[in-house]
Structures are given as structure tokens and as C-alpha cells.
Give the backbone structure.
Amino acid sequence: MYKILKAEKLADKIYLMDVEAPRVARHCEPGQFVIVKMDEKGERIPLTICDYDREAGTITIVFQEIGASTMKMSGLKAGDSFRDFIGPLGRPSEFVEEDIEALKNKKMLFVAGGVGAAPVYPQVKWLKEHGIKADVIVGAKTKDMLILEKEMEEVAGNYYPCTDDGTYGHAGMVTTKIEKLVEEGNKYDVCVAIGPMIMMKFTCLLTKKLEIPTIVSMNPIMVDGTGMCGACRVIVGGEVKFACVDGPEFDGHLVDFENAMKRQQMYRTEEGRAILKVQEGDTHHGGCGNCGGDN
Amino acid sequence: MADVLKRVPVREQDAKERATNFEEVCYGYNKEEAMEEASRCLNCKNAKCIQGCPVAINIPGFISKVKEGDIEGAYKVIGESSALPAICGRVCPQESQCECKCIRGIKGDPVSIGKLERYVADYALENDIKPVKAEKTNGHKVAVIGSGPSGLTCAGDLAKLGYEVTVFEALHELGGVLVYGIPEFRLPKHKVVKKEIEKVKELGVKFETNVVIGKSTTIDQLMEEEDFEAVFIGSGAGLPMFMGIPGETANGVFSANEYLTRSNLMKAFDDSYDTPIVAGKKVAVVGGGNVAMDAARTALRLGAEVHIVYRRSEAELPARVEEVHHAKEEGVIFDLLTNPKEILVDENGWVKGMVVVKMELGEPDASGRRRPVEIPGSEYEIELDTVIMSLGTSPNPLIASTTKGLETNRRKCIVAEEENGQTSKAAVFAGGDAVTGAATVILAMGAGKAGAKGIHELLSGK
């Protein structure tokens, strides 16, 4: 069992938890992820690592309620436990292995969308600890949905919040902020974009035009997360890769986002049914086919 | 008096009935049936059956106990050689091992050794007969990686010798391929696998789940930081292969590993579990091995019309005869001498069909089987909504790539001595599918035994 030491709600449907997992905390690096399983009958859910404390042996996870399982998970409180907590999985971000001096000469731009701020944070923090200041754009629908602001401001070189509705920071999509920064004369050697698939896709279209090499972090459907099932297949540069062992970070200019987005829809019918089951509890027995629950 | 040339038939769940549920297919013998079948054993002085067994169980020895009705005694005889008899009695290919050497088989049916082993083991599980434990530990710490058949066997053998063994498992359940790969209807998880693992626990073996060696920690760290003196790698062959044909990343195309993991490990067939599975209405399973049969029979139970698509003929099917027979009985359709060329995809990214080509058998290839050759112009389309690729698996490179000095071959398999499991790295041993590539449960158990012997020789200085 893996004890939850802290649980808080960051924004509507977005939650943060500190979980006791000493083996993971001792070995994880920025860019990696974990898989959690709530209880005996739960799904294995891949989640990005938002922070880690090697001494305390804890991992911070941030997740958004998007399906039945995450909905159930949001009900967990400090003192509760996860039955299973597996990791760190996937490969660390490329820069972790790079020569620090060479890295210091690179200007990096991080672009986070929504809950994507969570996996971006440990990367920017790692860079700061190694004497490198990176610029960070964080986008959200509206002010109340921006997460980890204080934390990000502390570790970023320049921090640029954006809201789609203009309630805070730059008004508009993250892509318009990238364009603006580049127009103002900022030069970036690398961009790291993490967020919803559609946001990563449009960021990549733009950075390709701007000729800024871009890394994205894929979050496809997964079961085991160790290379065993192949559910997380992504097409990168025409080749099939497994996000769990070859990624999750890939060259964004080579990722086939159309295919990736279609694959995310694979269990939509089943998921619709499962959400109803959680929402309606015992009143819904699933699979009746008449209530329209699976549409 | 029954015909001594014929084996006592084993009771099975009706084919029509079982095609719609996940209950075990074979019911096994009762005591009366087991004793009658045991009486057919000739108790050969030079027992050929033992030579056919990868872990050299004293087969006539345990059968003669069954004949006397001393089932506990029979269990003790098996226990000298095997820690997992309830599993082996179900999934071993006895027809090509012990039973094919049986003298009874010359004129009639060989003795039903597998079913007798199963009966004895199930009796021991039901009556909670404890395995014989080491009197005291010898203070040596050994790490075993993977809780599949090779790891469990190695751990069990070492514990009996007094070693302090910890097994590290990457998944959240113990058992490896026994829980994620082999379906419930062939190998019940709760009733058999879990209980058999309990017996290994009773020997004093410790288990830690959710530890992915190569990620959560490494072999070098286990030895340097956690004081393990020797390590046995039994991490299996978990990486699925795909064909590389167009359309393979479409929705509705799965590896057999994924499909079976969802159903077996995550219990997606049971509505009370959260993990979903796409049941499919019309499913093609590509491949002809035991895993392909398991995937096909799972899809069938989830309500699909299921076709096995295999490029050679029935005679070359690598699956066990019993599995093919069961699959046919249940209604799986065999499209033999047929090979996929392309998966057809609809506008939403879902599978809508498959282009296949007819094959004929040509000259024998390196494997000795006749090479399948395409018949030009014989392509046609079949309508489908699900394709399950069951083309084999290869070892996960995670461990080899994170362990200094561990040699692998070009198939990514860990190089290890057959007789004691010694790898290229000092105090590190390996066995099972991680070394051989995908094989059987019992061969992996044999390798686990060899590894235990190798580790014991090293640490006891013998």
C-alpha cells in the first residue's frame, strides 16, 4: 500500500497528491511517469510525476478527472492509500543526460497546457537546480484553471501565464504567446510542449514553421507501462514506437497526432458507460443499451 | 473391468456452455478416477517418463502412491521436484514430454500423467497440505526478478535450502505469465495460481510487487545497496511483435498480450472491474500458437465470431493439440494457409476489414516446417472489427540495458549456461523466456531449478 500524505484540489477537477513511494522517489527523473491503481478492481492509470522528494521518499502527482477511474480517485484523502504505485516508468527527458555546460548555452522554452503544467514543473525545476533558467508559458481556459503558478514562477526564468478567455495574463492560446515572444526577438533552441494532444499538435505546427526543435510528451492509453502490451503505440517519423518504453517524450515534429488522437478515442463507449456507473452508483447497472448511456 | 489400453476419460464442461463463460474447461479427476487411471501405470524400472520431464519428477513414484490412495504421499513425491504441480498439471504439454515416452502409449493411450498430477496438486490445495520448509535460514540473501514460473521455482528451491529469498515483480499481481497470459478457463487464478504461490510464501519466500527492475532499482543496486549476494533473472519474454503491415495502428488492432492482459490480469471480462476491453463482433486472431488459441477463445467468450488466421496448415500449428481441439469444439473458425497483407481502416480510424492472401506450402525452411508461399492473385478481403496479433514475443531489454556486463544475443535474449543459469556477470543467473525466448511454463521451471542449483553452488562454495 502506498499512503497519501497530502491531497488537495488545485482547480476544478484537478487534484494534487503526495504519495509515499520510496523506490520511485529514489530513482525518478524529470520526464518519467508512474502508474497508479486505486484498489483491487481499479484500472492501471498512467500519471506524470509533478515533483519528488528523495529524502522523504514521496512523489507528487497531479491529475484531472476525465473518466470513471480518475473520478473515483478524486475522492481519496490524506491518510488513504493507493493499492499500487509503479515507477518510475519511461525514459527521462533528454536534457537530463546532456552535458550541463552545453545545456547552459541553449535557450529553452516550455509550453504547458492545462494539467500539462504538472509534468513541465519538475523539468524546469531540475534545470534551475543546475543553473539554467528556462522560459515557461502556461495556458489555461480561464484564470481559475491555472495551476502551480507560485511554484512555476519560482523556478522559471520568465513565466508567462495565458488564458483563453483573457481573464489573466496573456489573452489567447499558448501558440499566440509563442509567436509574440519570437516576434519580440526571443530566440529559442528547444521547445518542450506538454498538454492536451490538440495543443501539442498546434504548438508543433507553429514551431516547425519557426524552426524550433520541439519535444512533446505523449500520454496514450496504456495497460502495463513496461513495454508488454503495446497499447501505447504512437507513430513517430513513420515508425511505430511504444510510448511507455521508447518515450513518453518524442520529437514533436515527427509525431503523427491524427493517429494519436484517434487512438485516444478507442474506449469512448466503454468509458461513457463506466462514468455513468460511478455517477449513478447502484441505480445504474450498465450495459442495458436502452438508456443512451454509451452515446 | 475397464479397458487397460484406454485412459480414464476426464470430465469437461460442455463446449457450447463453456464458450459463453470463463469457468475452467476441464474438471479433472476425482479420487476414484485418479486411482483407476493410476492403476494403469506399469511402474517401469527404467522410467522413460521421468526423462521426458524438464524437472524430472519421480512420476512412477507419485503414481504408485495415488494407486494406494495415499494422495498426501503422492504430493510429497512431486514436491521433491516441482513447486507448482497444480499449474503444470494444467498447462504442461505432456503429450510431447512425459506422456509421449510412456510404454502404455505403444499399444494404447499413455497414462494420463498430467491429469493425475493435477488431481494430486488440487487435493493438496484443497486440504492445505504444507510443503516441507527449511529448518533454519542460512543467512544468504538472494534476489529473484520476476514471479513467473522460472522465478517461483528458483525461489522455492532456494528457500527449501535455507536461503533468504526476495522476489521482485513488476506488475501488481504475482505469477507473471500465469496471471497475465494464460486465461482463467485454462488456469483459474484464485483457486490455483494464488494458492500455489501461497505455498511458495509458506517456504519463507518474500515478495515485493510493483518493482520494475531497471527502473525502480537496478540489479547492481540490489547487490550493492541491498546486500543481495546473488540474483536470478526470470523476467520472461514480454514484448509483443507486430507484422509491420499497413493499418496496424488502427483502433481495434491489439497485441495478444494486450488483449489477454486486459482480460486475465485486469479482469476486463468481469463487469465489476474498471478496465475496459473491446469485445469485438468479428475478430481475427493472427497466429497459431497457444497464445493465439487463448486470445481466440477469450474473444469467443466475450461474444465475438472468431477466426484464427494462420499462414501454414493445421499440421504446423504450434499450439498444443488439446488447445486446438478445444478451440474448434467451442466454435473458433480456422482460416488456414491464409496471411494478412493489410488492415483496412474506416474514416474514424477503426478496423473495418483485412486483405488476406492464400498460401501454399513449399520447401522446408530452417525450422524444418514447410515454408508458406503466397499464391499470386489470391488476395481477398474479409470484414472485421477487431484484429489480435499473436506473432510471438521477445524479451524486454529493460534489465539487460541497465545491468553492467550482462551479455545478450542478437534476439535480445540474456546469455546463460543451460546447466546452472550463470550469465556473463558474476553472481547473476538467468533462466526461462528471458533466456530462451517465448517457450513453455515447464521449461521455464526447469531453468529456474537449474538457476537455484547454480546459485547454491556459488554461495555454499560447493
Remarks:
- Chain B has a mean pLDDT of 93.
- Residues 441-460 of chain B form the longest helix (20 residues).
